[in-house]
Write a structure and sequence with these properties.
Keywords: Iron, Metal-binding, Pyridoxal phosphate, Signal, Thiamine biosynthesis, Transferase. The chain is α/β, with parallel strands linked by helices and 326 residues long. It is built from 13 helices and ten strands. The chain folds into two domains: 205 residues, Periplasmic binding protein-like II (D-Maltodextrin-Binding Protein, domain 2), CATH 3.40.190; 95 residues, Periplasmic binding protein-like II (D-Maltodextrin-Binding Protein, domain 2). The strands form three sheets. The protein has a five-stranded mixed beta sheet with strand order 2-1-3-10-4. Strand 6, helix 6 and strand 7 form a beta-alpha-beta unit. Helix 2 packs across helix 10. The N terminus is likely disordered.
């Protein structure tokens, strides 16, 4: 009798109360609004409804791509450069999703700097950088496209770049408009900017979620459930930016709640999550190919020997969105 009652109770229990499939995802950086759909899917019960127990791993010194490639995580949230560098270098990773439908990065300088009115004016100026080959390829292309000589001084400062720019210690840097850009506005910093795509850089999508090819092959059902719930989380966030900001603030350790709120508004108002009728998270094959080609041609993508890699002719096997059809 007791066994029968337990069986009936189990059959009538909600899905969330039954055994969940465990899933881990590694983040590319400390928690921020790029990850809002993950938090929304977790905290609004979408992962539970999909029969998943999702552990969002905290950011660490080991990159999310490295954790994923090593099998230490089932999924990873990755920057475009991080994903493409790892994949080109031989890591068997496959992109399933992209968060931002357009480039959120931009080149910024002090609005009161009369010596800078166009990218060509950056020749001979001082750049506060972050130490990647991508930056040099990006800035050089922008200067050359505008008819200038791509010669400038670089000081590697990391996140200290923004304070250095504000104090006039450097002339320009790069920022994410939906985060550092919002923060600069909150701090009252008067800055101007150049959009990458206006000066020879392909407009790229960014914020990939991916897995390993073997995991996708062995766990196609889990991948589909995880990605569909994630998509629902980002769709909800795009439609409810204020509520999404509150969820983020409750989930993270943010010293300035206004930054999170402003960032969500910038993401939604800028049309970064949504692009017309394009489904949230949809990967555009043409834009992936254009950016990958740019990175190969610029010598940014390198092999394990440190030498630039040759363009493979196609990167169509770098992504798979079959989960959208399940």
């Amino acid at each position: 009798m007791i066994r029968t009652l337990l069986t009936l109770a189990a059959l009538s229990a909600p899905a969330a109360a039954l055994a969940q499939d465990p899933v881990t995802i590694a983040l590319d950086w400390t928690l921020n609004t790029n990850h809002v759909g993950l938090i929304a899917a977790r905290d609004r019960g979408l992962y539970d409804d999909a029969g998943l127990e999702v552990d969002i791993l905290p950011y660490s010194d080991t990159s999310s791509t490295a954790l994923l490639a090593a099998g230490a995580a089932d999924f990873a949230y990755m920057t475009s450069l991080g994903f493409m560098s790892a994949r080109a270098g031989g890591a068997d990773l496959v992109a399933l999703w992209v968060t931002m439908q357009h480039e959120t990065g931009r080149l910024v300088y002090g609005a009161d700097n009369a010596a800078i009115t166009r990218p060509a004016d950056l020749s001979g100026k001082t750049y506060a950088g972050f130490g990647s080959d991508w930056e040099h390829a990006l800035i050089s292309t922008m200067i050359e496209t505008d008819g200038g000589d791509p010669v400038y001084d670089t000081v590697t400062l990391g996140t200290g770049a923004y304070e250095a720019l504000a104090t006039g210690a450097v002339d320009f840097t790069l920022e994410v408009a939906t985060w550092e850009g919002v923060n600069s506005e909150l701090l009252g910093r008067d800055q101007a900017s150049f959009a990458y795509a206006d000066y020879g850089i392909p407009d790229q999508q960014n914020g990939y979620i991916g897995t390993r090819s073997d995991y996708l092959g062995d766990h196609a059902d889990i991948v589909a459930r995880f990605m569909q719930a994630t998509q629902q989380g980002y769709e909800w966030a795009a439609a409810h930016p204020n509520d999404a900001a509150e969820l983020m603030i409750a989930a993270g350790d943010f010293p300035n709640a206004a930054l999170v709120e402003g960032s969500m508004q910038a993401i939604v108002e800028g049309g970064f999550l949504t692009d017309g009728d394009t489904p949230v998270g949809a990967i555009d094959p043409e834009r992936v190919a254009r950016m990958a080609k740019f990175l190969f041609d610029s010598g940014v993508l390198k092999g394990t020997d440190g030498q630039p890699l040759d363009w493979p002719g196609s990167v169509a096997d770098w992504y798979d969105q079959g989960w959208m059809d399940q």
